[in-house]
Specification:
This protein is an alpha/beta fold. The chain contains seven helices and five strands, in the order αββααβααββαα. Helix 2 packs across helix 3 and helix 3 packs across helix 6. The longest helix is centred in the N-terminal third of the chain and has 21 residues.
Length: 195
């Protein structure tokens, strides 16, 4: 390779990486956005929001949701989903004895399955070469820099949501976030208490 071609190649790779990251984090035009006091959920469709509400409903998610005509964001899942998400956030904060006042907004990107979650995770990975060797589905992960949870709808349950909310609270409610290993232990504990 010519010495002058290397900077152009590196710049092209950098621009491509940034564009790929933006595409993965920003919602597409067809996606549905649902907001609560502390949380913004970005989902592929209203049906996915309805499924999320059912899965997060207390008592196993046996709740049957009906659709209203009109604005898609005001479908029947809206009150149930908002109450479930805000309730889970409060429950996790209580389990971890952390405050919930003055929290920044959390974004939740609802994805169809664990493979799409893994693809998003690879974008944030510091060692993508190593990550590609073990390409398996991933239920969810929290990305502290963007204050975002990337979540597989196919794998969603209350415990997984509690686990990821733990990471969010530990990274935002404390002056200095604990090390990753400590966060994992606390998140697993919260998951067992909530699930």
């Amino acid at each position: 390779m010519l010495p002058s071609a290397r900077p152009v190649l590196c710049a092209g790779a950098l621009v491509g990486s940034v564009l790929l990251l933006l595409v993965s984090v920003l919602p597409a035009a067809a996606e549905v956005k649902y907001e609560t006091q502390n949380i913004v959920v970005i989902a592929p469709s209203q049906a996915d929001l309805d499924d999320m509400a059912r899965r997060l409903a207390p008592g196993g998610g046996g709740l049957r949701l009906l659709r209203f005509a009109g604005d898609r964001r005001e479908a029947a899942s809206a009150p149930n989903l908002g109450a479930s998400l805000e309730g889970l956030l409060r429950d996790v904060a209580r389990v971890l004895t952390l405050p919930t006042h003055n929290l920044p907004r959390l974004r939740i990107f609802l994805l169809p399955d664990g493979y799409q979650v893994r693809q998003r995770h690879l974008l944030f990975s510091q060692d993508p070469g190593r990550a590609l060797l073990g390409y398996r589905p991933l239920e969810a992960f929290y990305e502290a820099g963007s204050r975002s949870i990337f979540l597989s709808l196919a794998d969603l349950r209350r415990g997984i949501m509690a686990h990821e909310l733990s990471h969010f609270l530990l990274c935002t409610a404390l002056a200095a976030p604990p090390p990753q290993a400590v966060q994992e232990e606390w998140a697993r504990y919260a998951e067992t208490q909530i699930d």
